[in-house]
């Protein structure tokens, strides 16, 4: 049997938990040795209950074969803890996932790239959305891998910002990779799998159970050098990720927010407690210039020059069909862009102005937003992203 079978067999013992598996690996050194251990040897192992001995005495590999076949059909790669492509930073957290499922068209090695997580509220404001997209875009343009959870709100905006810069982004899910969750992010998931990777510690077929997501957050921070929190109330999943980051020795950053809004109380509190205040991607990049000197130094200099020269866009001068960055778009996408400006346009007005169905228009707008061409505003309004 291959080593993969032993890792899968061990990881699929759901009732053991990460800490127990870590304890077993410290004693037996490898999953193969755990698999081959006799029941008597397991019973003599300190820290194992009789129920856990019974679980480990089941040597049936049928579930492993089933998972491998599912992954083969879905194009999912399986990374084990001892794989050279397993994220090294993740390997050293207290409770690492010993198997990762990976959906990606590319063979990306996260070990030689700076990685920054971006998390925040699902019910984001327009300010939060713009901040997340702009910071993620700047990070990705500098060669940083943007990591998030593909949830509604700040997560989705962060992935979109990274994709719009042509950068690499990683989504960590709390379900199997055969599911897009939330469902409305299915196209985003496809785009991420093409330009980055989608990860999960859960095998195909695992539903998005509520208890999976707080646990998932330790992976988001675990594979990252630091975590940027954009809009978070005092009790939120984003702050769970920030707490994991602190426990793992990661840097914590926060975008300041409106002091009158509950959405910002968590982020403002983090800043008060010592988190690095972030107003742009440069604030994050400058923290890692010495660590990733060859990757980031020139990018930071270029970004600083761009900020110096930055001007307010002139809406009257904007001509989308004559701008070179629109050359690769379909005629349908271009037609939608000609109906937009820097003034909000409602979805229904766009629907009436085009020959598209509601589903077709929604799909086109999603891809245009991922590409960085349009911005979504509250109330199903849209503007050009210049």
Helical residues, percent: 40-55%
Shape: globular
Structural class: alpha/beta
Major beta sheet, specifics?
Answer: 9 strands, mixed
Low-confidence region ranges:
306-320
Radius of gyration from CA coordinates: 23 Å
The ordered H/E elements are HHHHHHEHEEHEHEHEHEHEHEHHHEHHEE
Strand order of the largest sheet: 1-2-6-5-4-3-7-8-9
| Count of DSSP strands | 12
Ends apart, CA distance between termini: 56 Å
Strand content: 5-15%
Average pLDDT confidence is 87
The helix tally amounts to 18
Gist of the model:
By secondary structure, this protein is α/β, with parallel strands linked by helices.
Ordered list of secondary-structure elements with their pairings:
Layout: H1 3-11, H2 18-28, H3 31-36, H4 39-43, H5 50-57, H6 62-74, E1 77-80, H7 88-91, E2 99-103, E3 115-120, H8 126-141, E4 145-148, H9 154-164, E5 169-172, H10 186-195, E6 197-200, H11 212-222, E7 226-230, H12 237-247, E8 251-255, H13 265-272, E9 276-277, H14 281-285, H15 293-309, H16 331-338, E10 345-346, H17 347-353, H18 358-370, E11 374-377, E12 381-384
Parallel strand pairs: 3-4, 3-7, 4-5, 5-6, 7-8, 8-9
Antiparallel strand pairs: 1-2, 2-6, 10-12, 11-12
Helix pairs in contact: 8-9, 9-10, 11-12
């Amino acid at each position: 049997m291959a080593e993969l079978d032993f890792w899968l067999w061990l990881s699929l013992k759901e009732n053991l938990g990460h800490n127990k598996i870590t304890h077993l690996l410290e004693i037996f050194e490898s999953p193969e040795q755990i698999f081959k251990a006799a029941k008597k040897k397991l019973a003599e192992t300190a820290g194992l209950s009789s129920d856990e001995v019974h679980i480990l005495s089941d040597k049936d590999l049928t579930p492993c074969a089933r998972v491998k076949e599912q992954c083969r059909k879905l194009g999912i790669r399986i990374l084990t803890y001892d794989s050279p492509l397993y994220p090294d930073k993740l390997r050293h957290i207290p409770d690492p996932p010993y198997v990762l499922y990976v959906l990606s068209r590319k063979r990306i090695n996260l070990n030689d790239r700076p990685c920054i997580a971006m998390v925040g509220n699902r019910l984001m404001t327009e300010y939060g959305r713009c901040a997340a997209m702009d910071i993620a875009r700047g990070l990705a343009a500098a060669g940083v891998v943007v990591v998030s959870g593909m949830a509604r709100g700040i997560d989705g905006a962060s992935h979109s910002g990274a994709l719009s810069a042509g950068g690499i982004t990683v989504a960590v899910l709390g379900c199997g990779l055969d599911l897009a969750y939330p469902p409305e992010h299915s196209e985003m998931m496809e785009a991420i799998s093409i330009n980055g990777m989608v990860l999960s510690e859960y095998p195909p077929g695992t539903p998005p159970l509520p208890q999976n997501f707080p646990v998932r957050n330790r992976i988001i921070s675990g594979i990252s050098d630091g975590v940027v929190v954009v809009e978070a109330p005092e009790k939120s999943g984003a702050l769970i990720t920030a707490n994991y980051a602190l426990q793992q020795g990661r840097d914590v950053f926060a975008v300041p927010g409106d002091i009158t809004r509950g959405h910002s109380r968590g982020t403002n509190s983090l800043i008060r407690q010592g988190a690095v205040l972030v107003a742009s991607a440069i604030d994050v990049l400058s923290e890692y210039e010495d660590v990733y000197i060859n990757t980031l130094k020139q990018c930071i200099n270029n970004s600083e020059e761009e900020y110096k020269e930055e001007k307010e866009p002139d809406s009257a001068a904007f001509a989308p069909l004559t701008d070179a960055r629109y050359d690769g778009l379909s005629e349908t996408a271009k037609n939608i862009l000609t109906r937009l400006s820097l003034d909000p346009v409602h979805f229904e007005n766009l629907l009436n102005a085009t020959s598209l169905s509601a589903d077709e228009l929604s799909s086109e707008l999603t891809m245009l937003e991922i590409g960085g061409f349009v911005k979504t505003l509250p109330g199903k309004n849209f503007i050009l992203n210049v």
